[in-house]
Amino acid sequence: MAEQEEISDPRTESLTDKISDKIHGDDDGDGERDTSSSSSDSEAEDKKTTSESSVKEKIFHLFGREKPVHKVFGGGKPADIFLWRNKKISGSVLGGATAVWVLFELLEYHLLTLVCHIAILVLSLSFLWSNASVFVNKRPPHIPEVRLPQEPFVEVASALRSEINHALVVLREIASGRDLKKFLGAVAGLWFISIVGSCCSFLTLFYIVFVLLHTAPVLYEKYDDKIDAIAEKAMHEIRKQYAIFDHKVLSKIPKGPLDKKRA
């Protein structure tokens, strides 16, 4: 009886082996499915991020900007004024510029006359107040000592000097005849400015530019998606017309000695 108990049925052993193999196989398959699903998820996420980055790179921005409009204007107080971050300051600046334009352009007031009249008014009031304070037993007006600091003027002069030097470098590159595209753009821009200058005075032109600086950036910041789409279509059409002009006209112009030396 003991020998019969020790001898096991081979059919039961084979059945248990099959069940265990099936269980382990299912576990392995689940692990492989988990790893494959995780790898597929990671690949999908990578593809998603790459597609998003490629879409971001393909987005067209006006003037090729890569920063927000506030950063383009320097990100300081001038940018806050142009983009109406503080409406009181921006409104007062624009109102002051409008008052100056009305005085000098519409009313034909002259700058030297205005400065002299303001100085006469201020001196007369302070003189009368100083003399009247003796009779009414009040203190005379305290006139502060005003001195202009040197640092702001030096900074403005340095910035102006760097901008003038940069403009001279650009003009030198254009005049050297190396880039026909820049030359045509400079000629077209100067021609447009000459037409605008013949239609209005310098003060009116300056006021128009000042108003545009206080209106165009804030509108562009608000509707940049629509404006960028329109600008992209316009730039595409301009490049198309320039390519046609280059093929029909510019390519037929004989090359000069400078181009022969390059070749």
UniProtKB/TrEMBL annotation:
State a single Pfam family of this protein: Reticulon
Reticulon domain location is: 78-263
Where would one find coiled-coil regions in this protein?
none
Under InterPro entries, the record lists:
Reticulon, Reticulon-like
Q: Compositional bias of type Basic and acidic residues: which residue ranges?
A: 8-26
Which residue ranges does the record annotate as region Disordered? 1-52
| Residue ranges of the TM segments | 110-129, 183-213
Q: Does the keyword Lyase apply?
A: no
The subcellular location is: Endoplasmic reticulum membrane
UniProt KW Lipid biosynthesis keyword: no
**A GO BP entry:** response to bacterium
**Membrane-topology descriptor:** Multi-pass membrane protein
Instruction: Please give the chief subcellular localization of this protein.
Output: endoplasmic reticulum
Gene Ontology, cellular component aspect: endoplasmic reticulum membrane
UniProt keyword annotations, A-Z: Endoplasmic reticulum, Membrane, Transmembrane, Transmembrane helix
- For this entry, the protein name equals Reticulon-like protein
